[in-house]
Design a protein that fits this description.
The chain is 25% helix and 26% strand. By secondary structure, the protein is α+β, with helices and mostly antiparallel strands. The protein has one domain: tt1808, chain A, CATH 3.90.1570.10. A hairpin with a 2-residue loop joins β7 and β8. It starts with a helix and ends in a 6-residue tail after the last strand. The mean pLDDT is 94.
Length: 189
Amino acid sequence: MSATAHARIHYWRFTVDDYQRMGETGILHEDDRVELIEGEIVALPPIGSPHGGRVKHLNRILAGAVGEYAIIAVQDPVVLGIRSEPEPDIAILRPRPDFYTDAHPMAADVLLLIEVADSSLQYDLNVKVPLYARHGIPEVWVVDIAHRQVLRFSRPANGTYLEQGPINLKAPIALPGLPGCAVQLAALF
């Protein structure tokens, strides 16, 4: 291919508005496993039983801990800027009287995002965690099913997390932004 032919290739990056209109008009369907990341529509793998079970288990653990102090969203969109609308496995959100029926949550609404990684570990670590850091999400957990660990990313600054590492599953872990709320994660594995 000549350099001239290559120079004529243009890539279209979608906005969140474009992406949402695709859903409204039926181009994308509610059951499609996709998310918008930096303007690109990314197809996600099907949810396997180990992944689905961990999400359900986390939902139960977290619901008992946060009570009425936060809203737990399971595999729902979060709007990050004009070109990203990921669907984290779990989001712990600031309470809002409308329960986010008027608009999807944005970065400022998020206390904690959790990604459960069965087949998606590299994608979660190399694409989603940096995206969350760039948008100032205060804390992210990645549940690494294969290695039976939960990785914690906190203190976002300059597009990265200053603190990173595995969570001690035998000790209670405090939930960010929710004083007095803690969970134990050992039962996940």
